[in-house]
């Protein structure tokens, strides 16, 4: 089943790879016999579904999550493999959509106001007073 990331991008099912293994957690005796943990992986670097601009942006934004150009999403929260597959598909779509989303406006640096500086210093003074009062009195 294809993953609809946005109106402009759909990841074809043929480009997705699946790996299944035993999941930890609840399930009783059944958990020891079923492969309900799901790993979904997609090769971003060689995907035919992406334009060159999209590929560059994904490789840059997701560089910390990629291993040799492949992104992997794991799901093991559900007891059923089918539901874990759906969760993994949704997560991959969310990750890719977030990486492709345009960046917001750049923050303009501003100086703190006089009032905010004074409030900060007052809060620091109160905090130091509280800590000073916790100390044992010094005996001379």
From TrEMBL:
<dbReference type="GO" id="GO:0072344">
    <property type="term" value="P:rescue of stalled ribosome"/>
</dbReference>
<dbReference type="GO" id="GO:0003747">
    <property type="term" value="F:translation release factor activity"/>
</dbReference>
<feature type="domain" description="Prokaryotic-type class I peptide chain release factors">
    <location>
        <begin position="9"/>
        <end position="134"/>
    </location>
</feature>
<dbReference type="InterPro" id="IPR045853">
    <property type="entry name" value="Pep_chain_release_fac_I_sf"/>
</dbReference>
<dbReference type="Pfam" id="PF00472">
    <property type="entry name" value="RF-1"/>
</dbReference>
<dbReference type="GO" id="GO:0043022">
    <property type="term" value="F:ribosome binding"/>
</dbReference>
<dbReference type="InterPro" id="IPR000352">
    <property type="entry name" value="Pep_chain_release_fac_I"/>
</dbReference>
<protein>
    <submittedName>
        <fullName>Ribosome-associated protein</fullName>
    </submittedName>
</protein>
<feature type="compositionally biased region" description="Basic and acidic residues">
    <location>
        <begin position="115"/>
        <end position="140"/>
    </location>
</feature>
<feature type="region of interest" description="Disordered">
    <location>
        <begin position="96"/>
        <end position="140"/>
    </location>
</feature>
<dbReference type="GO" id="GO:0004045">
    <property type="term" value="F:peptidyl-tRNA hydrolase activity"/>
</dbReference>
<comment type="similarity">
    <text>Belongs to the prokaryotic/mitochondrial release factor family.</text>
</comment>
